[in-house]
Amino acid sequence: MRHLMITVVGIGILTSAAGSLAAAQPNERRRDFVEGVLRVLVETQVLPHMARDGQPPPGKPPVPPPPHSRHREVRAAIEEFSAQSGELIAMLRQEEGVRPELRPLLGDAIAVKALTDALLRRAEGRPDPALLAEGFSGVDQRWRTLATRLEGSFAVSGACRQCVRKLNASGERVCQLLGISPQVDREEIVQVLATLTGHLRGLQDVIAGLAPRSRESQIALVELQRLQMQVNLLTATASRPCPYDEFLSQYRAVHKGWRALVGQMRSLDFREGERHIRRIDYVHRQLHELLWIQLDLDRVGLARSAALLSRNVDAACECVSLKMLLAAPNAEAVLQTARELRSLCADFSKAAAGQDSLDSLRWDFRSLDVQCQQFGACLEGWASPDLSQHLAYLDDNIQAVQGALGIRPLVDLEQAVDLAAQLDSLTDQLQHDLRERLGPASRYPPPFRRDAAAAANAVHDSAHQLHDELLRRPHSESIRKSAERLSIAWQALQEFVGKLDHRDRAVVTRHYDRLAPVMARLQMMFVY
Q1: CB 85 within 8 Å of CB 112
Q2: Collapsing DSSP states into helix, strand and coil, what is residue 311?
Q3: Residue range 389-443, pLDDT digits in tens
Q4: Cα separation of 106 and 27, whole Å?
């Protein structure tokens, strides 16, 4: 129960703090809100096994304190790491306004600093080397994954890269002082491998359902089944203690087999299969990051995706009739946008098939992506089923090219949908619990019962609306506004929860242990 109450108290503090920021910009208030929830989340969930309030974990005898000078040296090194992570966050905040690609990385950087600061606070009352070693091992694990993402991002400035190098050096120094070696996150790797298994099975189902069956599809099915067996073995390896080099060697064989198989499947023309291929490629990018290795550019796959994008732009243009143009108030804008988009697609296809550098291709893609969005906006609402279908194909094509270039999306849509679904369900349960505690027989005055119930309804309605919008994949600005409404409704509800008596609050907050992390992760996607 104390675990849950810490979360509630922490969120309550955030609410009162938010009230004093009335003059701040909405985004600044939401940043404070999410970062505060994240800090509480780290305190109560990421480090639950560590000592609280300077006391050793249950069941473990007190460890004699190390020499004071040694502890002071280790703590100073961790504080230096924390300060440098703060510098990185400041840089990313300054730069993400002109480089939105940095937004997801900023959220990860904030999480690393929150975890580091939580470790320092936990260690204040007890200079235990085991506590520091265990805690910083998790910090180092998350930092190395983030460093891999930062080093692989074309949007990161030279100053940020220099800060990354300083943090790498500081992290290495702390690890040496504590006598710990880097450890990959095996639990998360196992979870990602489970996702890979699901997508491979989905791809097998799509190919098995192709009609008529061809020799190429039969070969692809056999190879997919063989690859699935390799992934199963890799999952078993990740589930037990295993040297990093051994696991990495097994994974490289799986990834090499996948890329070879994708090349064989290029003769199969199936759009649903293309979506599974794109999802599997994304999972492999996640695995590369978790294993702290950079992903090489698949030039053949990129060239194919770029050519397919160009063909689908032409197909979308062919769906626009002269009659439709004559009836459109923005016909000139449509023609100009389409002309520029076709030109950009042709240039990009040529560059993708050539020897342009990865950074050059990524920068070229930015203007292509913007132009493609403008093209879709110009044609939004036009009554043509064929055109709507081709615009949906274009969205898939853009995502495929983006993935081939190793550009992380601003929002991981699948993860956002999953988080929003959890939030929709959990807020419904919270709403039910609050309704039970605020019934006519309760001790609370009618105005309080009415307003508290309305606040709970607003949270659930906002969560449900966000989930619905994510499923329909509307414009990102609409999703951002819905996420903002959700955060405001959530903060308003805390005022009423804080005024419940002890027993009622214990019942109402039983879902907070799951709600807080989901809320923090979902808001982090849209807050900046």
Answers
A1: yes
A2: helix
A3: 888 888 888 988 988 888 877 777 777 888 888 899 989 988 888 888 888 878 8
A4: 15
Question: CB–CB of 207/224 below 8 Å?
Answer: yes
Contact status, residue 298 vs residue 400, Cβ threshold 8 Å = no
CB under 8 Å to 501, separation ≥6 — which residues? 443
Question: Which helix (DSSP H) or strand (DSSP E) does residue 478 occupy?
Answer: helix 476-497
Q: Is residue 106 part of a domain?
A: yes
pTM for this prediction: 0.74
Question: For the domain that residue 284 is a member of, what is the CATH number?
Answer: 1.20.5
Taking phi over 0 as left and psi of -120 to 50 as alpha, with beta for the rest, 210 belongs to: beta
Dist. CA 136–CA 171, nearest whole Å: 9
Separation CA 382–CA 437 (nearest Å)? 50
Q: Is the Cα torsion angle 288, 208, 304, 312 positive or negative in sign?
A: negative
78 and 170: one domain?
yes
Return the structure tokens found at 159.
């100053």
- Interior CA angle at 92 toward 147 and 285, to 5°? 40
What CATH number is attached to the domain comprising 511?
Answer: 1.10.132
